[in-house]
Amino acid sequence: MNRYCKHIFFSFLVFFFCAAHSGSSQEITFENITLKDGLPSPNITAIFKDSYGFMWFGTLDGFLFRYNGYDFTSFSITSNNIVLSGTGISALSELPDGSIVVGTECAGLWILDRFTETFTVYRTDQNNNQSISNNCILDIFKDSDSTFWIGTRDGANIFNPVLQTFTRIYPLNPKNDINAISGFTQDETGIIWMFCAGTNKFVSYNKETEHVTEHVYLKDFTKDIKWRGGKILYYDNKIWLATKFNGLFYYDITLNKTFQYSLKNTHIKDVTEIHLVHHDSQTYLWVGTDGGGIRIIHPQTLEQQVVMHTATIGALSGNGIISMYVDDEQNVWIGNYASGIDIYIKRKNIFTTYTAHSNKPHQLSSKSVLSITKLHNDLLLIGTDGGGFQLFDTKNNTIIKTVRGLARERIFSTTFDTKHECSNLRKSLIRSTKPALLQNPCYR
After folding, report:
1. What is the largest CA-CA distance in the chain?
2. Containing structural domain, residue 362
3. How much is the pTM?
4. Which of 17, 88, 173, 381 could join 373 in a cystine, given CB atoms 3.0 to 4.6 angstroms apart?
C-alpha cells in the first residue's frame, strides 16, 4: 500500500497530475486500507483529518483510532469508569485546542485531550438545561464562525467548549415527537440548514434572528423509524438532501422548489438509500449509497458517473458506503461496510525518469545527481557527480545548459539567493551572475 505524507519532497522527477474527472467514462481508481494493513475494524462510520495532518476513524462497534499514514493508534474509550461499548461512533471533529470531538450513537459526546489522551464525557442531564439535549449524536458541524453544532435525536445543540455548555435549539415544534437533527450545512449568507430525521422536512435557521423556516422535500415519504435520517449539503445555491429511504433530492433556493434526483441509469437500477453527499474541489458531488456504490454528479449539468465495486485492482472495495470525507488536499476517504477504507487520491503522481546519455544533447551529464536547487522561472540547478552542473527547464522538461571544465566537477550542494546561484564544489565555489544562461562563471 502506498504511504501518504502531507509534505512531498521535490526530487529530480517531473510530476504530471491527472485530472479527477475528465468525463463520465473515466476510470476511477482507489487505494484500499484493510485489516491486512493493520486497520483495527473494517466498518468505518466516521472519518476526519485533524489540524496536525492525522486521519481519525470511528467505527460501527465503537473503536476510535488515529492513522499517521503508516500505523494505527487505538484509543481506549473510557472515562471515570464509563466504557464506550456497544455503540458506534457517528461523527468526528476537532476543537481549537486540538482536542478530538467524538459523537456516539447512544453514549453522548466525548472529547479526547490529545496530549493527556483522556476523555471528557458530556451526557444529557434532565436537571440542567445547559447540558446536551440527547445522548444520541447524529452529526457534528463547525460553521464559518467556528461555532460547533451538535445534531441529536432530540434537537440541535450549540456547544461552547470554553464554558462547556450547550444551547438547545428545537427547529421543529418542541412538542413534536420527532425533533432529530441528522445533518447541517451552511450557505454563503450564513444561514444554517438542518436535516430533520424521521420527517419529510428540512429547515433553515438564521443565527442572528433565530428565525426558522420549514421546507418539505417530499409529501409522501417512507418514515425512517431508526431516526438516522440523512445528510444535507449546500452547493451552488442548492441544498442537497441525502435521505435514508427516499433517495436524493435538491432544493433550488432561487426557485424555492425541491426536485428529486434519480440515481438510476441504463445499467443500474435506482438507489433510494443514500448515506451521504460531499463535494470535492472540482465542484463534483460524491454521493455514497447503500448497495449502489458511489455516484459522482456534476451539479450544473446534473450528469452522473457510476462507481461500483469490481474485481479489478484499484476498484472500489464494496458498494455499501457508510462514511465519506474530503480532506484539505481534496483526497476522498471512503468508509465501506465490512471492506475497510478506500482512498481516492486526487493527484496521482506519474514519474518521468531522466538518465545520462553522454552522446546526446540536452541529457543528464552524469547518472549520479548530487544536488538540486529550484531557481526561478521554472528552472532547476542540478549538480552531478563528475558531470558539472546543468540547468533544467521544468516547463519544457529539458536540459537547456551544461557547464563543464570546472576545477572540480563533483557538485555536492547548491543554494540560491536573490542575486546569485552558488554551487559548492569539493574545493571550489563558483558563481554565475546570469543564472538564466549560466555564462561567465567565476571561481572563488
Report:
1. 88
2. 353-443
3. 0.70
4. 381
